[in-house]
Amino acid sequence: MKKLLVLRHAKADPDDGSVSDHERALTKKGTKAARKMGELLRERRLIPDRVLRSTAERARTTAEAAVEGLGQAVAIQTVAELYLAEPPAYLDVLKRLGDDVTQVLVVGHNPGIETLLYHLTSRAEHMPTAALAECDLPLERWSDLAPTTHGELVNVWRPKEINE
Fold first, then answer.
1. What share of the chain is helix, strand, coil (3-state, %, to 5)?
2. What is the CATH class of 2-13+20-161?
3. Distance between CA atoms of 157 and 15, rounded to whole angstroms?
């Protein structure tokens, strides 16, 4: 069994044209929410073996804040294919993971995150900024991941639903 943790990037500065979409930074509220999701992962003993993130600034800082909340070092890997990706790109990236990775945290963007969850679990879930989903996948090896793989959506946490 493999575990996929999916985190949508946290709240970013508005797209006002002053910087490219790719370079938008997190707000203070967004950084706090990302750290809170990392703390939640630690409390639930859902420590990823690796973190994969898109190249966007908001994904970088979300991943770093979440790892800070974990309270332990976890390797963060930047993956260009995850920037504004759709499910096939996520699946391709995940299929390349080694068998030593049991739990992985992916930090990405909507609408791809919501579509990926629906694709893997047949459950439509609203994933606002900094929302986190936990999915169990019936795989022995990541390389076995296929478009037909059907997993179980175990839980979804949204920042506004978590006690301060």
1. 35, 20, 40
2. alpha beta
3. 25
